[in-house]
Design a protein that fits this description.
Blueprint: H1 2-35, E1 38-51, E2 64-69, H2 75-83, E3 101-112, E4 117-118, E5 124-130, H3 141-157, E6 161-169, H4 176-187, E7 192-197, H5 204-219, E8 228-230, H6 239-251
Parallel strand pairs: 2-5, 2-6, 6-7, 7-8
Antiparallel strand pairs: 1-3, 3-4, 3-5
The protein binds guanosine-5'-triphosphate and magnesium ion.
Length: 254
């Protein structure tokens, strides 16, 4: 009986500790969302260069954010959506459109939505990078090797690369090819954010289920789960969140 009472008391203690942790976490989230009071205003976005290897990429003198994922997952469309410019990165219904490392220079100012004033009058510049996708079936072994070398060289040697946005099609359950690619990035110790794309093309409940399944699969072998966003290029969904993350990283002292 005494043991039972002890067990109940212990459970209550654990419960209260968990509640405290939850409260603390929600405070953190509230605090975070308050600090993200400003929406990044993109002043201009321009195409700079397409490079066949990291050695011919522009001088790494600005923060860089890369977009990668399976062929046709929507990398170029997402970049266009972020920049409010449908003709910036070339998109196509046929997989394998993007073949090289494409640099876009972005210039933005942070806008205080509360006062409607520009916080940083001096625009901040950074690079967005559109990368060719993986998993396109109709590709020779030689081209696949070339892709692997180009991508590995770029991802591991690019010193100004601050975040790799890995795109995943929100309509599908977890795909082994994406998990393998993510494991490779993780082994290389690179910073990752997951971006689920094309959310407009599937029912919300199915998107939510696929996202949950993917995170659960990662949890089986990953200790830390990267943050994730659900997006739609056509509906401009997820734009503010991605831009806020970029802004947060850009504001960090180098
Ligand atoms: N409905 C819808 N269609 C999308 C979305 N994102 C991309 N698409 C379409 O999906 C197709 C592929 O988009 P891209 O942006 O070219 O994909 P990608 O990943 O850059 O493709 P590759 O460069 O070939 O690897 C195009 O027909 C886009 O219009 C989205 O959020 N919603
Ligand atoms: Mg593309």
């Amino acid at each position: 009986m005494v043991e039972e009472l002890k067990a109940v008391k212990y459970k209550k203690l654990i419960g209260s500790a968990q509640l405290q942790i939850k409260k603390h976490k929600s405070n953190l989230i509230n605090h975070k969302s308050q600090t993200i009071f400003a929406a990044m205003l993109i002043k201009f976005a321009k195409y700079i260069i397409s490079s066949p290897s990291v050695d011919s990429c522009p001088t790494p003198d600005m923060n860089e954010f890369a977009f990668i994922g399976r062929s046709n997952v929507g990398k170029s469309s997402l970049i266009n959506m972020l920049c409010n410019n449908d003709r910036l990165a070339k998109t196509s219904g046929t997989p394998g459109k993007t073949q090289l490392i494409n640099h876009f220079e972005i210039s933005g100012v942070q806008e205080n939505t509360a006062t409607n004033s520009k916080v940083n009058q001096q625009p901040i510049k950074w690079y967005l990078v559109d990368l060719p996708g993986y998993g396109f079936a109709k590709v020779s072994i030689r081209s696949r090797r070339r892709w692997e070398q180009m991508i590995e060289g770029y991802l591991r040697k690019r010193t100004n690369l601050k975040m790799i946005f890995v795109l995943l099609d929100a309509r599908h359950t977890p795909q082994q090819i994406d998990l393998d690619f993510l494991n490779q990035l993780d082994n290389w110790g690179l910073p990752i954010t997951l971006v689920f794309t094309k959310a407009d093309k599937e029912k919300q409940a199915i998107v939510a289920k696929n996202v949950k399944l993917f995170i659960e699969r990662l949890r089986q072998s990953w200790q830390f789960i990267p943050q994730h966003f659900v997006t739609s290029a056509t509906k401009k969904m997820g734009r503010d969140k991605i831009l806020s993350l970029i802004e947060e990283i850009n504001e960090k002292p180098q």
